[in-house]
């Protein structure tokens, strides 16, 4: 029998329901109960079988002899379990019924095969094969911190260049000026960066430690002890010993006991729940971003047992190799030998041992790590830990993000280095390569090192700090946090915005807004009329209303009959809506009742039926109770449920009223499928279109009454179809279609609104006008995403929506892509499966076409798919991508983007902590990008080029000076002058550029087209760089040559004239370059000028005071400055008239 678990799995591994061998078909009812969301007749479809299984539980327990030693099963008696020695039998010899260890051995033979068969109470050796259950998000450890940080810094040419220049100063032959002037700026930049990285990593480490130290209870078998009283023994047999361990110590094969609101620490198979029905609800918001609760089902065989039996169980679980997909799981549960009763009953006889029972396991039986148990308590069996859990496999490691501006400046630094080297060679060549010419080359290189100013890094980093401060203190976007301060400029260059749906664009709060019944339509403001009609129908206020109308004039009886007809129609549709769903009422600790279901639409509809008077008060897998407006209870048996799937787009239920025995088939679903199923009508299509235009999610409600005989026929046929091995899904669907799904009575149409976040429509419109292409990536259904795309105005009013769903072959994909190629103005809606197919087969073609579309909506996306899409767009378009989300499932996408924005939402803070920027509302994005982003980029671009200009101009002057003085590598300005030039004499005015603005805030948000200009990257490009290069060349040469022309007889005079002219020139250039003069700039200019004048008195070695105060000095400096600055002012004036900037047209 060794191949039973494997063969049953392999033969049918595409779906969860595994067949049992033929010889056990008579026991199918007892054990072969598998619940799969995809194709089984669903939970209550098998409810009767489970009830039967439960009723037979005691009977079955009597069939087995007490044989505790055989419990050891695969472990060969490693654990001895037994209470009373007189009841024990010697172990049986190996027989065909003893479980085979074949699957267990195979689990470890091939290191690449990660599938596993794990027995209950596995050996230490087996457990140690699997990764430890440790959460680790740190980037560094004690050994890797320095090497990685230094590598990250010095891989930039910019920093490497300075390191080499600083080190060269330790060589006497190359020493020029103070060593400190070369080393201090570099050391400052490095220490700031290292401090920031160390702090961030320390915070990550703290969060990891907190997650790893959360404690959980694991179940262990009670130790074998002597005589117990019967009460003690009864307790020990139904309860297991528990031991509290930290999350990091959990191993594969452990049994974990979870309580309400506990985080699931590893991937578990659900064995037992506190609900007698064997179900429990979990919250998966950190995994797939959906806030509704999901139903999970315990393994039926284990649910029947007590917790004490579970730890002694002789069983094993097979699980496939770990994969990323959170919607699929393939496994089997093999019960080798049922648990023996604790004592032999008086006349019990050992029966023939039964073969192992194999049950299929699907994703419905599994609790993934990082989900939260929403109600009750549960026992789970650990199958995947640590790096093999679905949650960890779906998160990517954060990479250090570097802004595009920094990369562009790095490229410019290489050009400047080439310029420096060329200049040094030219000067040495002109001197005829005399003497130790290579030393001269190096000395020139160091003399000209100010061409690539280290102060650029310091200035830019300080600028980023200012931008971050402005963003965080903006009163219009409160509680916005900048977590990565190196990226504010990136916000000004976004071309693609990838957004999550649930919780980001929507609040995930559903509300029933409309009920349409053909001749009558009820809106949100007329729901009290529905409540009145319902009360009339259920006879609450019936008598009074008849009396009231009876007193009217003749013809009132007719009106009454019409009214009664209307109220019975209302009753039919409300009753059907209150019955046709998968909602369970859950009582909270404080006595309030909340409704839970896997779809928030259903909760909205059931909440609405309660608000009009028909309340769902009880629900399990076999029964449902409703309370009418008059307070009476209606009890219905659930006979079958056909769950909603993305293929069927509908959900059906067969119920029987317990009092009258009337059987009804109720179905609700999307209009596209329901139109064919319901009877002919003339209003459905038109009304559905009207509601969809309003952005409402529509569901069509229909009903069919069944006779007992007809239902019996259906049930027989359906059962036969459900146990088929081949084509089971089709067989079951055809039986449902033949007996139930035709000529249904159309009862009504509901419209449910998914409330949007504040100002989402206007935000998306503004961003679209700013030239940003918006993609919506969601884990939700195609229909839902489509509705939201319409209601958020992501899709323009008459824009065509093209749907690509359930594509299976390369030809289908090719046809769809060809269609899209010719219709680029449409909105594409694509599901996760088709998206994966497109990326696997036609990656480049798909991305090329999709990136040209105005809007794309991708549904049923896994977290990894979202991240892959972000990376692909970045790689293919080379444009900046911003991702925004609010749940743990968006973390990978946020980290994969150039700029990640996290929203602090209902789904917790996980996305906001992983993001570069954290906001509290989607609408804050407008101000963040169109105002702060635009300003940051413009200012940094201007600042960077000005600082480069400041370094170039002094190097040009040095070159001219050296050329005139026999090409000697002698410094023109030494010591304090050089230090002061880059710091106190120019720093404040130059830095005032970070507060420059070309338009005010209102204009920037009123004309989002201004933002579009920036995304082209023209503020800092090779063109603007060479313009500044020419300006520096002209000004440097003009100042130096004019100083020499007006040369006095002393060298000291050249220094004082040229340096004063240089400082004044820079101050004037700042005033010319800034777009809008502001108070800080004016103050910094004036204060710096005064400071310079005062400092002259303290630097007698550079300035001859008697000469400086003379009239000759003043007019010579004035002439030089006029020659260097006035032509530039004239050029700027002409340009503003001929080709004005876009922003200046608005002022």
TrEMBL record:
It is found in: Endosome membrane; Membrane. It catalyses: a 1,2-diacyl-sn-glycero-3-phosphoethanolamine(out) + ATP + H2O = a 1,2-diacyl-sn-glycero-3-phosphoethanolamine(in) + ADP + phosphate + H(+); ATP + H2O + phospholipidSide 1 = ADP + phosphate + phospholipidSide 2. Residues 235-389 form the P-type ATPase A domain. The keyword Magnesium applies. One of its GO terms (cellular component) is plasma membrane. Its main location: membrane. This is Phospholipid-transporting ATPase. It comes from Crucibulum laeve.
């Amino acid at each position: 029998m060794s191949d039973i678990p494997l063969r049953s799995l392999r033969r049918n591994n595409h779906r969860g329901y595994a067949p049992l061998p033929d010889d056990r078909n008579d026991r199918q009812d007892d054990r072969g109960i598998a619940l799969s969301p995809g194709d089984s007749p669903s939970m209550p479809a098998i409810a009767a079988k489970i009830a039967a299984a439960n009723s037979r539980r005691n009977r079955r327990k009597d069939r087995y002899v007490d044989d505790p030693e055989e419990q050891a099963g695969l472990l060969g008696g490693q654990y001895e379990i037994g209470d009373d020695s007189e009841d024990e039998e010697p172990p049986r010899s190996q027989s065909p019924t003893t479980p085979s260890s074949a699957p267990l051995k195979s689990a470890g033979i091939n290191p690449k095969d990660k599938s596993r068969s794990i027995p209950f109470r596995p050996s230490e050796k087996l457990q140690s094969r699997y990764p430890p259950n440790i959460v680790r998000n740190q980037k560094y450890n004690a050994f890797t911190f320095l090497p990685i940080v230094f590598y990250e810094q010095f891989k930039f040419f910019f920093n490497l260049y300075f390191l080499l220049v600083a080190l060269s100063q330790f060589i006497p032959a190359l020493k020029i000026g103070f060593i400190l002037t070369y080393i201090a700026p570099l050391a400052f930049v490095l220490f700031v960066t290292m401090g920031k990285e160390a702090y961030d990593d320390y915070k990550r480490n703290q969060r990891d430690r907190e997650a790893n130290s959360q404690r959980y209870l694991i179940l262990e078998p009670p130790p074998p002890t002597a005589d117990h009283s019967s009460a003690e023994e009864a307790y020990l047999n139904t309860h297991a010993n528990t031991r509290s361990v930290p999350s990091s110590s959990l191993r594969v094969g452990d049994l974990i006991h979870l309580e309400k609101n506990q985080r699931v620490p590893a991937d578990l198979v659900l064995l037992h729940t506190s609900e007698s029905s064997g179900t429990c609800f979990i919250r998966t918001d950190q995994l797939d971003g959906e806030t509704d609760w999901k139903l999970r089902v315990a393994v039926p065989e284990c649910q029947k047992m007590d917790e004490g039996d579970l730890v002694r169980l002789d069983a094993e679980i097979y699980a496939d190799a770990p994969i990323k997909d959170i919607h699929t799981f393939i496994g089997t549960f093999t019960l080798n030998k049922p648990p023996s009763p604790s004592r032999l009953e008086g006349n019990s006889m050992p029966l023939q041992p039964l073969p192992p029972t194999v049950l299929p396991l699907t994703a419905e039986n599994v609790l993934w790590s990082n989900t939260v148990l929403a109600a009750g308590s549960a026992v789970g069996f650990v199958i995947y830990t640590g790096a093999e859990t679905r949650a960890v496999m779906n998160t990517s490691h954060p990479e250090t993000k570097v802004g595009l501006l920094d990369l562009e400046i790095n490229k410019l630094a290489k050009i400047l280095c080439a310029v420096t080297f060329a200049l040094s060679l030219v000067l040495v060549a002109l001197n005829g390569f005399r003497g130790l010419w290579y030393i001269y080359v190096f000395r020139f290189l160091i003399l000209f090192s100010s061409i690539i100013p280290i102060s650029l890094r310091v200035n830019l980093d300080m600028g980023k700090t200012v931008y971050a401060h402005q963003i965080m203190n903006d009163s219009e976007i409160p509680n916005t946090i900048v977590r990565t301060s190196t990226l504010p400029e990136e916000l000004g260059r976004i071309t693609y915005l990838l957004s999550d749906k649930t919780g980001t664009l929507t609040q995930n709060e559903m509300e029933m807004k409309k009920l349409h019944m053909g001749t009558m339509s009820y809106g949100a403001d007329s729901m009290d009329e529905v409540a009145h009609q319902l009360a009339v129908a259920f006879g609450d206020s019936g008598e009074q209303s008849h009396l009231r109308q009876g007193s009217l004039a003749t013809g009132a009886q007719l009106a009454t009959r019409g009214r009664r007809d209307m109220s019975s129609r209302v009753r039919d549709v409300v009753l059907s809506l209150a019955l046709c769903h998968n909602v369970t009422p859950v009582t909270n600790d404080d006595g309030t009742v909340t409704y839970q279901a896997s779809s928030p639409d259903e909760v909205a509809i059931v909440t609405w039926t309660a608000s009009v008077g028909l309340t769902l008060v009880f629900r399990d897998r076999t029964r449902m109770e409703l309370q009418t407006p008059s307070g009476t209870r209606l009890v219905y048996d659930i006979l079958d449920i056909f769950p909603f799937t993305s293929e069927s787009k509908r959900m059906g239920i067969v119920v029987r009223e317990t009092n009258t025995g009337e059987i009804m088939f109720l179905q609700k679903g999307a209009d596209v499928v329901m139109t064919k199923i319901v009877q002919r009508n003339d209003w459905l299509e038109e009304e559905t279109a009207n509601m969809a235009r309003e952005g409402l999610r529509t569901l069509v409600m229909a009903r069919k009454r069944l006779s007992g005989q007809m239902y019996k026929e259906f049930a027989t046929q359906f059962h036969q179809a459900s146990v088929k091995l081949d084509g089971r899904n089709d067989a079951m669907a055809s039986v449902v279609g033949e007996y139930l799904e035709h000529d249904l009575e159309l009862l009504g149409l509901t419209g449910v609104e998914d409330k949007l976040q504040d100002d989402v429509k206007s935000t998306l419109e503004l961003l679209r006008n700013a030239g940003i292409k918006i993609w919506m990536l969601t884990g939700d259904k195609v229909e839902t995403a489509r509705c939201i795309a319409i209601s958020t105005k992501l899709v323009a009013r008459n824009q065509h929506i093209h749907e690509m769903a359930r594509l299976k072959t390369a030809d289908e994909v090719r046809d769809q892509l060809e269609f899209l190629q010719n219709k680029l103005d449409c909105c594409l809606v694509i599901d996760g499966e088709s998206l994966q197919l497109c990326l696997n087969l036609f990656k480049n073609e798909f991305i090329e076409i999709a990136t040209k579309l105005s809007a794309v909506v991708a549904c049923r996306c896994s977290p990894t798919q979202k991240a892959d899409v972000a990376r692909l767009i970045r790689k293919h378009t080379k444009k900046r991508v911003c991702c925004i989300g609010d749940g743990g499932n968006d973390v990978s996408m946020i980290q994969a983007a150039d700029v990640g924005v996290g929203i602090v939402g209902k789904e917790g803070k996980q996305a906001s902590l992983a993001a570069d920027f954290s906001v509290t509302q989607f609408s804050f994005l407008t101000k963040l990008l169109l105002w702060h982003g635009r300003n940051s980029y413009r200012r940094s671009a201007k600042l960077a080029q000005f600082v480069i200009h400041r370094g170039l101009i002094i190097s040009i002057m040095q070159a001219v000076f050296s050329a005139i003085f026999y090409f000697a590598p002698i410094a023109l300005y030494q010591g304090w002058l050089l230090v002061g030039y880059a710091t106190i004499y120019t720093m404040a005015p130059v830095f005032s550029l970070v507060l420059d603005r070309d338009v005010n805030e209102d204009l920037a948000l009123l004309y989002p087209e201004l933002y579009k200009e920036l995304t082209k990257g023209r503020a800092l490009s090779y063109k603007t760089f060479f313009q500044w290069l020419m300006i520096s060349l002209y000004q440097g040469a003009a100042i130096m040559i004019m100083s020499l022309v007006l040369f006095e007889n002393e060298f000291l005079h050249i220094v004082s004239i040229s340096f004063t002219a240089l400082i004044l020139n820079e101050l004037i250039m700042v005033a010319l370059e800034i777009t809008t003069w502001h108070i800080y700039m004016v103050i910094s200019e004036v204060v710096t000028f005064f400071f310079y004048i005062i400092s002259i008195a303290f630097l007698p070695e550079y300035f001859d005071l008697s000469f400086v105060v003379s009239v000759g000095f003043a007019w010579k400096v004035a002439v030089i400055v006029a020659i260097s600055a006035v032509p530039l002012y004239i050029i700027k004036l002409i340009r503003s008239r001929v080709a004005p900037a876009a922003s200046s047209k608005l002022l």
